[in-house]
Amino acid sequence: MRRQGLVSNFSILSISTVIQGALGFITVVYLARILGPNGYGLYSYTWTWAILWLTLTQLGIPTWMTRVASALQGSERIARVQEAWDVLFWLGLFGMLIFIGATLVLPMSGMTKILLLLWSSLLLQNSVNPQWIYALEQQLAIPAVAMVVGAILRLVATVLLVNAEGKLNLAVIVTVTALWIAPIGLIAYLAIYQGLRCPCWPGWRRLATTIRHSSIFAIFGVVGVIYSGIDVLILRHFTTLTQVGFYSAATRPLVLLASLLGVLLQSFYPMASQLVHDNREKLEQVTVNILRMVVIVTIPIAIGAMVVDHSFIVGLFGNQYQSASVPFAILTVSWMITAIREVFAINLVVTYGEKRYLRAVLIGAGINLLTMLGLVHWGATGLAAALACSQAFLMIYTGRLVRHQFRDINFPWRTAWLAVLNSLIMGAVVYELLPYTSVWVVIGIGIFVFTGLAFITRLLTWADLMAMKGA
Questions:
Q1: What is the pLDDT of residue 235?
Q2: Which of 346, 335, 322 is CA-nearest to residue 409?
Q3: How many whole angstroms separate alpha carbon 254 and alpha carbon 25?
Q4: Helix (H, G, I), strand (E, B), or coil: what is residue 98?
Q5: pTM, rounded to two decimals
Q6: Burial class (CB in 10 A: 0-12, 13-18, 19+), 233
């Protein structure tokens, strides 16, 4: 495959992610409206259980292999990728069978069992999805197209088939089927044009060796579960499915935003893995540029969300979800903090500083769990606040670790303060206009105001854009 640069990959993935994310977002909003807070809460709750198990079927192998294979070339690189894919297939198959067995044995309601069994094939899908291979080669156009096709088919099938509150089973079947489309297409392409063969049994020794080498990344994944899924489980245990529905609705817009920034980070990771061997000075420069971009994008969204939270949530999901507005505003701040932390984390991982980062994550996970248990009785709002607190700690801790590793990577404080100032002005304009017009019109005006202020105050210049292009 022909490699592409950071901006080329970012541009391709940005376009596809905007399309895919918008389609997925429309699909979820439609489901939430049709199923109602209680039905959508059960949909999200069972989906979360499946997501937790997904971590155990990859065990950090794609992340580890991306770092290892970046330093290899030719047939040796191809062989290592094939070995990793073999191991991933069998881990996914074992994980799916264990998940099915546990679902059948553990006590739970009949509807919950049915939904979990329907979700079970995603464990195998997650393992065999070869998108990480395309990312390793820095060639992301093909997976971008495949993911968009899957999102289109999911939306169309959902609207046509899931048209009543009781069709929860059908909603899950449609989602699972659509999520399989892209991996099947990507695997077929690699098999035809790149020689990827059917997965073979790697042997217990190879299986154990691969898991041992990737174990620290597996621990990251398991600990990450405390951030990505245990919140829903805690909320369901201590409160109601309706509260789960509110919390899940509050997170959905942020999933779209996170996927857009995830494009940048997904493009950055394989590039950083290469630069750490070839040009450490350029790695520091690119990191600072990405930090500035993240700050400029996330701060106005976080401040804007505090102003339009109620109108935005009600406009999307309807009056039945108005209790999700405050959690949404808090989670937006958490998303901003997480985005900055992820940039720091990538620099630690590519420079083999993952053990120090793991220590930070473990401490942050403990804080997250304790604060969630302490605040869960405030429902979705309490859990959103707990997540923001733990992510703030982890961002500060990780930033300090990066400063020890890279002396020339400094947090762009001037950019951050200018972004806050411009965002406050934007927020004031939005607040004054909100009673007189649609929230969607006001959001568009807010974007225009902030962009204009960014260039006027030189928060963003054409030189900055060229610097990113040069990365």
A1: 86
A2: 346
A3: 10
A4: helix
A5: 0.72
A6: middle
**Per the structure block, which two tokens stand in for 189?**
């392409």
Residue located via tokens 């989602």: 175
Instruction: Give the separation between CA 367 and CA 387, rounded to whole angstroms.
Output: 9
219-258 pLDDT tens trace: 777 776 666 667 888 888 888 888 888 888 888 888 777 7
Q: What is the DSSP letter of 198?
A: P
Cα separation, 343 vs 339, in Å, equals: 7
HSE toward the beta carbon, residue 53, CA cutoff 13 A = 26
Hunting for tokens 């630690």 — which residue is that?
348
Closest among 140, 152, 125, 143 to 185, alpha carbons compared: 143
User: How many C-beta atoms surround the C-beta of residue 385 within 10 A?
Assistant: 21
**Confidence at 4, pLDDT banded by 50, 70, 90:** very low
* C-alpha pair distances (Å), 249 with each of 26, 51, 253, 380, 400: 12, 17, 8, 10, 34
Distant-in-sequence, close-in-space partners of 271: CB < 8 Å, separation ≥ 6: 5, 6, 138, 286
d(CA 284, CA 405): 10
Q: List the structure tokens of 254.
A: 């942020």
Residue type at 78? I
Measured in residues, the chain has a length of 471
Task: Give the model's confidence band at 467: pLDDT under 50 very low, under 70 low, under 90 confident, else very high.
Answer: low
Token pair in block for residue 374: 């302490």
- Identify the CA nearest to 411 among candidates 326, 287, 299, 314: 287
CA 279 remoteness from chain centre: 28
Mean pLDDT, residues 392-409 taken together = 78
User: What is the distance between the alpha carbons of residues 238 and 228, in angstroms, rounded to a whole number?
Assistant: 18
Amino acid at 2: R
User: Under 8 Å CB-to-CB from 328, ≥6 apart: which residues?
Assistant: 249, 250, 253, 254, 305, 309, 312, 313, 384
At 180, the amino acid letter reads W
For residues 357 and 413, is the Cβ–Cβ distance under 8 A?
A: no
Can you state the angle between helices 379-405 and 215-228, rounded to 10 degrees?
A: 150
Coil/strand/helix, residue 154 = helix
What percentage of the chain's residues is helix, strand, coil (to nearest 5)?
85, 0, 15
Q: What is the DSSP letter of 199?
A: P
Largest CA distance in the chain: 68
DSSP letter (8 states) at residue 378:
G
Task: Map tokens 């300090």 to a residue.
Answer: 400
CB 121 within 8 A of CB 176: yes
Residue type for position 438:
S
Determine the distance from the C-alpha atom of residue 248 to the mean position of all C-alpha atoms in its chain, rounded to a whole number: 14
**Residue among 381, 293, 376, 279 nearest 342 (CA):** 293
For 308, the token pair is 């339009």
The C-alpha atoms of residue 402 and residue 344 are separated, in whole angstroms, by 6
